[in-house]
Specification:
homodimer; alpha/beta; Alkaline Phosphatase, subunit A; six-stranded antiparallel β-sheet; four-stranded parallel β-sheet; globular
């Protein structure tokens, strides 16, 4: 149970409590009291994790070995999982003028169903023998997947990240010349396919910015990842609202569960996700559940909102307490801290509570950053979480006699 | 001072205390109060250690590098230490009928002095240029050591582990053909040497199962281990009752001390072992002491028995408290947890207390799993124990200036 961005620092307006400490949280406290707590350096002390690298680490993968950039994760989030050696990019649908100068980097925050229509002309595209697949993502976003031999992810972005001319993609290593050439060709083709597309003609007539180009950025080569089931000899599912976490789940071979009401936003239906997770456990050995809301409130710098989200997370924990089967091992953890004051991820350790029957009772009776640091689990690493859960679940094999 | 299998989980019948928490333990508590405590992942978080791999780790060896299977450890336990490249097997004296079908896998739990007689005909045996040594072990067990060039441990077991025909040993890699041939020849020879052996003729006349074959299993190649004295620049002894721990000690080059009354069982004379350990320290720098009893009670799933064993361990700790010379650094630790409910080793961290004059007093005044997790040593690894003791003993060299 990953409560995204949950951890925080002492906040002045909360009388130097953390949002977690300030929240009324009887159910999270119950798990802390009856379980064991600790603090976790998800990647390493002082290392600021992304939500992608952190989830890889929590699933027992070494992000330094398997994380190759955002592109493949975003692509997987939309359902596009490439083979090792394929290269994926994040893209924006954008608006350019006749001189290829970007006038709106998000094409008026265009979204489905327009984007769904706009990716159709790319069906079956091949450039220089390389298969090109485009898929729409959230709002104005899309992903580009290049499949074939001899690709490299060491290329610059076409996206100028501002209102200037579309950048020419530059190879950042000699072996990337072919890829850069293909991406440049792709960008030009996207303009020719999109500029007069019926959707854009309609948008122009409605005085909406046209989405007449696709701007790739954040190239990443698909890594070779041992599937979760092979790595842990467990079947697993992923219950998440946001595309990035679904991407991580999909790349690791978890089954992605679509839960009605799981929006990935502040309005997400947390209880529906908890219910779906318990249901998954009827046929699966493991569930990764992610709730994004606390992170969103923290990125907004809104302490009161983060406290309110945590109280809803606590209600969800209460639902789990009431319904959790006896043979389930549950871990409550954050993927990283998102301090209100920083409005971004920090490298602080995150609180963790593990609960199952028979846990040695440590002294902690509350769930928060400070109490967790006094807990019986001590200070561990993100990569230690899975082996501990695996052992608590009675699945680990003895090494030696 | 390794208290085998001491650590545990919260046990319902002990009102959710661990056996250690439930035991009256004033002396272990004294050491915790006057020393520093911590929890130890003997091999790694969530990793379930065997008693062999755990003791290797405690002695500062990396079990992933030096542990090659049970055979060499058992062989060393009987006193047979091979060179690197030699292959050792565990064996059972068993009973087979004329068709080589196993009728009693333990030959009526035959033991010394019968087994001592039965290994004599193997003296000086050589097969295909490979030296063959057989030595009796506890009860119906024996070990087989093959010495010479070109051996491999990648061979299957002759022991069918049931009442079926003796298995032909199969090479599990091409390089193992020679070894498999030798073991098959050895098994046949053992039948021809044992079937009409006077001991068996006597047993047959007494209606006892004859031990007319030796069934090798669990092949392991002797590893190259830097002797303890070379590794740590300390002389060392091993005071243990069970063969497996003696084997670890012997493989690491520790002197094995035979203590009258040290049975390796529940009835072992703990005070005698403590006395012997102190006596060793008069001429040795280091003693590894192991008491198996708590592990035995836990494998039996008997919480009350485990509590009673711990209270006897505490008496032993009291004896040490009263007699320990001032310049001795003592560590009380478990090699792994053996939770009553599991009746087997778990991957939970174990409690550790280190005592010597001048220890920083941490907050802990009791010795148990939860108190140790609050201790001043934090959460460390098994391989960290020796360097810490080494430094506390004033032996470590400065790194830098």
């Amino acid at each position: 149970m990953v409560m995204d961005g949950l951890g925080d620092r002492a906040v002045k307006q909360l009388h130097w409590k953390t949002p977690l400490q300030a929240a009324v949280r009887p159910n999270l406290n119950w798990f802390a009291e009856h379980g064991s707590s600790g603090i976790v350096d998800i990647i390493g002390p002082g290392i600021r994790p992304g939500s992608d690298t952190s989830h890889l680490s929590i699933l027992g993968y070494d992000p330094y070995k398997v994380y190759t950039g955002r592109g493949p994760i975003e692509a997987a989030g939309t359902g596009l999982v490439g083979k090792k050696g394929d290269v994926a990019f994040r893209c924006n649908f954008a608006t350019v003028d006749d001189n290829m100068v970007v006038t709106d980097r998000r094409a008026g925050r265009i979204k489905e169903p327009d984007t769904t229509e706009l990716v159709r002309p790319f069906d079956g595209m091949v450039i220089d023998g390389i298969k090109v697949v485009v898929k729409e993502a959230t709002e104005h976003r899309a992903v580009l997947l290049l499949s074939g031999p001899g690709l490299s992810a060491k290329v610059s972005d076409a996206d100028p990240h501002g209102s200037t001319k579309v950048h020419e993609v530059i190879p950042l290593e000699p072996e990337a010349k072919k890829t850069a050439k293909i991406v440049n060709a792709f960008v030009k083709k996207s303009y020719s396919l999109l500029n007069d597309h019926p959707v854009n003609l309609r948008r122009a007539s409605e005085k909406q910015p046209v989405a007449n180009i696709l701007l790739p950025r954040g190239a990443g080569m698909f890594p070779e990842i041992v599937p979760f089931e092979e790595k842990w000899d467990m079947t697993g599912s992923c219950v998440a609202g946001v595309s990035l976490i679904k991407g991580i789940g999909r790349i690791c071979g978890l089954d992605i569960v679509e839960v009605p009401g799981a929006t990935g936003g502040l309005d997400t239906d947390m209880i529906a996700k908890a219910k779906a997770s318990l249901q998954q456990l009827e046929s699966r050995d493991f569930v990764l559940m992610n709730i994004k809301a606390a992170d969103i409130a923290a990125h907004d710098g809104d302490a009161a909102k983060k406290v309110a989200v945590i109280e809803r997370l606590d209600d969800m924990a209460g639902f789990l307490h009431a319904t959790l089967p006896e043979d389930v091992v549950v871990a409550f953890v954050a993927d990283h801290c998102t301090p209100i004051e920083m409005q971004d991820h920090s490298g602080d350790p995150v609180p963790l509570t593990i609960y199952c029957p028979g846990m040695v009772r440590d002294t902690g009776a509350t769930f928060d950053e400070a109490a967790a640091s006094q807990g019986g689990l001590g200070r561990i690493r993100g990569k230690d979480i899975m082996p501990i859960l695996y052992d608590k679940a009675g699945r680990s094999e003895k090494f030696g006699a």
